[in-house]
Amino acid sequence: MSSYLQQLETTPADQRWPLARQWLDAEPLAFTRELRDYRPVLMLPEVTLVATDRDCREVLLRPDLFTVRLYRPKQGDYWMAQDDTTQHWREKGVMRAVLDLESLPHMRAWVGQETAHRLTAAGDTLDVVNDVTRAVPIAFVQHWFGFADSDANALKRWSYWNQMDAFWNQPFQAPGFATPDQITAERNAANTEMRGYLSQLIQSRAAALQAGEDGSDMVSRLLLLSGSQAIRFDPKAVVLNVGGLLIGAVETTSHGAVNALAFLMADPERLAAACAAARDDDTAAFDGMVFEALRFAPAFGYFFRTAERDATLARGTDYEIVVPAGTTVLALTHSAMFDPAAVAHPERFDPSRALRDTYTFGLGLHECLGRAIGAVMIPEIVRQTLSIADFRAGEIDRAGGPVPESWPWVRNAEGSAS
Question: Is the pLDDT of residue 1 over 50?
């Protein structure tokens, strides 16, 4: 054993997880490399850390054994808070069908135009987070998901507090930007506002449909499906799922785009290659750079699950261990993407890697519903920013929280992002 595990062993038990959490935030690759080598399943009082690709897959591909129980107090009756239920499969299937993935090329073109417009219209200063990486997904939701008459600031607030409460305000976490109760109160207030807006939106869309107006937007398509009674999908399900589209589209897109930009810009040679690829009409090579950047700097370094019964991990190895029922398990997918047993030359920046070989959009039953849209929106935002932006980047500000809150850039007379 070397430094990290030795430090943990000499640290009082109630301080080990806070220390490990600091390492996961500040030096994740070095810490998790040691875990893979010496303690691939590390049991701490609050959580169990799972570091290898093999065991991360076991956790994420066994929803019968490792569940999203911790989602339920945050997401209520929404299907994403369920594992392998009829409602989960039915509503997820419906939402996948109405996402209109045939329009992905048009969606990407729209995102490119919207991003370019916001960059070229900026003055001498630009907040990349609030002016671009959050603003473009919000505009996307308004244009493509049927929220055209909504207030952008309200959409941002509703998405933000739901994300903060569900994914960053769990019992094993220690949010630094607000107390747990404050975060939950903000989410409750946001959802009250959002339900009121969505109820009015659905009523207006239903009236428009009865009047013979076009029903091509996503809300209208869901209402048509619900009204047909061809499948169980009542108005309550419409409200929940339309809200879920908003919540899932904004903050994770912004976080991913900022992380990819920051990683590509951190090395001059990598930045030059990315800028050259960004100007090429063939986007495949550039997209590979973005997703490889997100392997090094993912928006989510782990996914959490709860063991519903005693579970064996690292089976058949010298580290085999039984994780007791009720344990909160963190599948350290950032570590898994650097596991040499699963990834060739993991330390090498290799844009030719397949996106499917990463955990960028999750894995298994709870893989990101909008992964196909995210897979064009994130790289296109980054591509346009590197192609057009003539700014000098400042420091990313997370305001004590888990996501980028602002990133000031100043106009660069030399004419390229730096």
Answer: no
